[in-house]
Design brief:
- The protein has three helices and ten strands.
- The protein is of the alpha+beta class.
- The protein is 19% helix and 41% strand.
- The strands form three sheets. Strands 7-4-9-8 form a four-stranded mixed beta sheet. A three-stranded antiparallel beta sheet has the order 1-2-3, with no helix packed on it. The chain has a three-stranded antiparallel beta sheet with strand order 6-5-10.
- It starts with 6 loop residues before the first strand and ends in a 5-residue tail after the last helix.
Length: 186
Amino acid sequence: MINLEEKTLKKETVYNGKILNVELHDVELPDGSLSKREILRHNGAVAVLALTDKNEVLIVEQYRKAAELVTLEIPAGKLDLGEDPIFCAVRELKEETGYEVSEEELTKIYATHVAIGYSSELITIYFVDNLTEDKRGNLSLDEDEFLNLKKIKLENIFKMLDSNEITDSKTIIALEWLRNKKRIQF
């Protein structure tokens, strides 16, 4: 069996940002040859697949500069350094949808690496259902955050998913989990 580990010989931080850092690594490959790796360091993030008591999925519509388009996504946000993901999920759901839930109401679906070839970002996806209007307050968005909250019926969200109208990977993973676990057919 081949040892697959790449040993870091030298590491240089080439950019320190608000959300991520970029590192350049000189590595020794398993066969002894040398190579370079560009790595994005990210604290991680959370996302919440949230269903109302009327079988509507809470979706946020927002502009994503990196893709230069308006996307449809489940509510999500980045972790503060050292923050517990489930605490972040409660906070982000409140900020982006107004719905208040407890940690006990959330079920972890998956933790997934977003772009494992070059990024350390790990996003933890949670599920909550039976949200009622009495659990909803006002949005409390970050100062540089702009979005529209949508409630989309299950049958419509799966049509959007199947027609590739939704391209966000965390949202696709969460919705496919829901379709599989709940055996939802439309």
